[in-house]
Structures are given as structure tokens and as C-alpha cells.
């Protein structure tokens, strides 16, 4: 029983350690939740940048509308260069200027067509980016909900550990109480055994005294033969027996034997009950250990899955930020090129080469090539 008590105490200590580990995992889950909230804020920033991209798209559409108006003006003869070509009586220098302006207008129209195609590509890329941002936001919300459920499960596990701890404490107190009762019963059994031994000695001494009385010896001389270990009560009982050798000891011996045997039977039943109770307590402790191990395994698996999902979300966010930077540079390049084209209207410019415009459209502000 003492070994079982020590084992139960060790199990209680292990439960304390596992509860501390669960608290540490709960702190890690809170840190992960804070990280997800930070990622959610970054997604909100991405949405704000997406709204800026929408504004940029509106500006690009406005530029396209102006380009179409310019092209319609050139086709209907309302462009200033066309009016100059239609005026009669122009000198050769004016004719050369008008021809150069018409050539520049034609090259500018080709550049605008190319820029329009590039703008369509950028618009599609912006739509994809917006869809990815929405999907990322949904994934983040799902991760947040998963973390909330995991935190709730951990809190439930914490409550279960607290309940298990209280039950373990109650079982420990009950076990200690039963251990004390067992010790008391063992002491009583030992006392009854001693009384039984003394009774047998008294019986033997009584028979010997009766035999000596029959032979004519004095019973008082037999008192020195009594075992010095006998108690005072046993000696008094022996004296009474020796003083009254004619009394019948049969009924007294039977009643005494029954009085000793009845407590012995009660002690044995009590010990058997204690052993059954101890076995039940051991079964309860084993069951609680299995339940605790299962809860810990499920929590660890769920936390590992959430950490993996958070890492994937972090990688996706970084890629989205990089792609957003690329889109901003691309739109900046488009706006600068469109502004330069608008400033050429009504002035004399050297001929614009279409490949040069393509290079301008495919390069960012910083001069790096844009990979389509």
C-alpha cells in the first residue's frame, strides 16, 4: 500500500508537470494568434493598396479615353497636324513640319496601342492580385477561427486537468484515510493475536495447575513458572483460575475464543474491502492517465497543423507584397509614358520609334525589366 501511495504521488507530480506543459503550449497558441492578427493587419493594408490600384486603373482608363479621342481626331482630320497639311499655299518648311508631325502622330498611335495591350495585361494581373488578397483574407479568417477553437480546446483541457487534479487530491486523501484505517485494523489484529496467545498460555497454565493440585503440590508455587512476558491482566486471570481450580473453564474458553474470532473476521473483511477499494482507485487513475494522454496527443497534432498553416500564410503574404510592388512600378511606368505622349501634342518632336516605346513600357521607373 505504501508503494501504491508513492506511485500515486509520482503520478500526481507528473500531472502537475503536464499541466505546466499545457500552459506553455497555451502561451504559444496566444503568440500564434497575435501573429495571425498581425498578418490580418497586413492583409488589410494589402486591401488598401488594392483600392489604390483601382484608382490607378481609373486613371489609366481616362488616359485610354483621351488616346481614343486623339486617334479619332487624327482620322477625321481634326488633329492640328492634319489641319496644317490641308492648308493651301504652305511653304516647303511648313510642309516638312506638317509631314514630321503626321509621322510622329502615327508612331505615337502605335505606341498607344502597345501601351493599351500592356494596360490590359496589368489590369488582369491586378484582378488576380485582388482575388488572391480576398482568398488570403478568407484563409486568415479560417485560421483565426481555428486558433480560437484550439484555444477553447486547450482551456477545456486545462479545466479537465484541474478536475483531474482535484479528483486525484480527493483520491489521495481517501487513500491516506484507508491506509490509516488499515494500520489501525492491523494493530487491533495484532492485539487480538497477543490476547489469543495469552489465553492459550493461561489455559496451559490452568491445566498444569490442576494437574499439580491433583498431585498435592501448592498452586502458589506454580506462579513462578508463568512466562514473564504475560501482561498484568493475563496474570490476574491466571490467579483467578488458580484460586478456583474447580470452576468449569469450558464455557469461558469458548466465549473467549468466539470473542477473539469475531474481531478477526471483521478485520479480514475490512482488509478485503480496502484491497478492493485500492484496486478501484488504481483503475480510476489508469483511466485518467489514458484520457490525459489522448487529449495531449490531439492538442499537439492540432497545434502542429496550425503552425504549418501559419507558415504557409506568411509565405503567401510575402509573395503578395512583392507582386504588389511590381504592379505599382508597372503602373508608375505606364503613367510616365502616357504623360510624355500627351505633352507631345501640338509641338514638334523627333520621330518616335515603336520598339523604343515598347522598351519604355516594359521597364519600370528604376530601369529594371518587368517580367510579364
TrEMBL record:
Coiled-coil annotation reads: 43-73, 112-205, 264-298
Which GO cellular component terms are attached?
A: centrosome
Specify where it is mainly localized. cytoplasm
Give the UniProt subcellular location, in the record's own words: Cytoplasm, Cytoskeleton, Microtubule organizing center, Centrosome
- InterPro entries, per this entry? Odf2-rel (IPR026099)
Give the UniProt keywords, A-Z: Coiled coil, Cytoplasm, Cytoskeleton
* Similarity comment text for this entry: Belongs to the ODF2 family.
Q: Tell me the protein's name.
A: Outer dense fiber of sperm tails 2
Species the sequence originates in: Cichlidogyrus casuarinus
Protein's gene = ODF2
